[in-house]
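Quick one, tokens below. Sequence please?
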């Protein structure tokens, strides 16, 4: 394409992260969970650093067109530290103390069916089976 004077589009050029509870899943016939990191092998990682793929793309483009823009130096990386967690709370406690609407259905509704764009939904149900606990 470059030899013919065409242009190229890169998706995804730069990685990123979905913070909070905005990660989800894809469902096109098969449920596939999606993690919060979505760089998908992008040429520039979530921290803005060029990856080996970036340098390969740059080299391929430079063989056909002048590449005059300098690549900025990467941001400094901070050393990791330890954080001592001294408190904890069960998520179930938040559901018990926070007033939330309830809905009873014959199936497990999707966020779309509930009219929710993002957040947390608590699903509870009964599974038919034995009367004794499973061990």
């Amino acid at each position: 394409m470059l030899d013919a004077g065409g242009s190229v589009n890169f998706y995804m050029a730069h990685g990123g992260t979905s913070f909070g509870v905005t990660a989800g899943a894809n469902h096109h016939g098969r449920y596939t969970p999606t993690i919060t990191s979505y760089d998908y092998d992008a040429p520039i990682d979530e921290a803005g650093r060029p990856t080996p793929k970036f340098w390969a793309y740059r080299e391929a483009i430079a063989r056909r067109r002048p590449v005059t823009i300098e690549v900025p130096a990467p941001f400094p990386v901070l050393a990791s530290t330890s954080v001592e967690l001294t408190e904890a709370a069960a998520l179930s406690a938040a559901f018990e103390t926070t007033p939330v609407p309830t809905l009873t259905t014959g199936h497990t509704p999707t966020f779309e069916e509930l009219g929710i764009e993002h957040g947390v939904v608590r699903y509870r149900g009964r599974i038919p089976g034995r009367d004794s606990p499973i061990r």
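The chain has a mean pLDDT of 84. Residues 52-62 form the longest helix (11 residues).
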